[in-house]
Amino acid sequence: MAHERGEPPALGRLGPRLPLQTIGEFSRSVGLSPSTLRDYGASGLLPPFDVEDRTGYRYYDPGQQRQAIWIRRLRDAGLGLERIGAVLAGDIAEAETLLAAWVSETRDRAATTKALADDFLASLRANAGDPPARRTRVRCDAMVLAAAIRQVEPVSSSDPDLDGVLIEVGDRSLTISATDRFVLLARAAVPAVVEGPPARLRLSAAEAVSRLRSTMEADLTVLATAARVPGEDATLRLWDERGAALPLLAAPDRFPSSAALFDAPPPRTALRFVRRELRAVAATTGSGSLFLTAEAAGSAGVRSGTGLAGGAVLGDAMPGTRELSAAAVTLIADAAVGDELVCALGGGTGPLRWSAPAQPDFIALMMSRPA
């Protein structure tokens, strides 16, 4: 009888080897169904120890039970199978990084879920009359807030539904973002003291900056119905440090949630560029296209017809070439600060995520396409 022998169990085994288990026996011992085990075997996450050539029967080593149980527990807790595989395959440092990112994302999703549940319950309770008002007070440095608005405002759309900037109020910080549908610029962690539930509002960037110039501390009060959904109006009041009210109009909010756009798995590839070199290549191209590559040897490049901005590859090589808008790259390079820009790429076709190491809360998202 011939067998195809798999790799030894990844998490080890103590004592003498025990008899191999059939898929049914192993299934009962680890709490995973036979069909799930077959799927995990096909994907390489948990291959059987032996497969009989003639019958295709699968056999598992009892030493694989520990790994199988950890897979089940992590999956039940909400960790995706791709990340589970990376956690099990990597060293301790990589596992710590991946799990810390997952815990942070889970915490953010829990806060968003609670806010959604609270809004829905408030809507149910308000069926008999007008929903109650919900108040959120935000205090922050007016100059810091104005600078964040000015930094993202260059991509503010001419679309009447997306012009201006979106302010999303979290537990201890603000996210300030603007988009023209192709590029999104954001400051994701502007410090603030927040009293009340999460809130969001859309403002005219020019008007907000003009009002904030006249005060040192921004004291914002957001009033909205408890059952408010995106697209409904909110009332905003801005107070200066002397208690004087400064008129500031909040526009109807039809922005997408930038927080949802930032919720992505860790990138497989990151490309590091010198910002001024990237800006120079984009500027000489004008409204044309740039081409992004990342080679296995560790070198990256953004090319135009006449220029090249060289960079370094951190992580996996990027297969193929991506076509970028030179105008979009110019917008991002102009908005960023510091000497370097880092472009993060996932495994799919989602937007490229740009960041500036000199300003950790600066984020830019842009669309690209295979070249």
What report would you give on this structure?
By secondary structure, the protein is of the alpha+beta class. The protein is 32% helix and 33% strand. It is built from 10 helices and 23 strands. The strands form 3 sheets. The protein has a 14-stranded antiparallel beta sheet. Strands 9-5-11-12-13 form a 5-stranded antiparallel beta sheet. A hairpin with a 5-residue loop joins strand 3 and strand 4. Helix 4 packs antiparallel against helix 5, helix 6 runs antiparallel to helix 7 and helix 9 runs antiparallel to helix 10. The longest helix has 34 residues. It is flat. The two termini are 51 Å apart. 30% of the residues are buried. The N terminus is likely disordered.
- Helical percentage: 25-40%
- Give the rounded overall mean pLDDT: 80
What structural class is derived from the secondary structure elements?
Answer: alpha+beta
Strand content: 25-35%
Number of helices: 10
* Low-pLDDT residue spans: 1-15, 227-232
Largest sheet: 14 strands, antiparallel
* C-alpha end-to-end distance: 51 Å
Name its key features:
single chain, 371 residues, 5-stranded antiparallel sheet, 32% helix, flat, disordered N terminus
Summarize the structure.
The protein is 32% helix and 33% strand. It has helices at residues 23-30, 34-43, 65-76, 81-89, 92-125, 142-152, 205-212, 258-262, 275-285, 326-335; strands spanning 3-5, 21-22, 50-52, 58-60, 133-141, 165-169, 173-179, 183-191, 193-195, 199-203, 217-225, 235-239, 245-246, 250-251, 269-274, 289-294, 299-303, 308-315, 318-325, 340-345, 352-356, 359-366, 369-370.
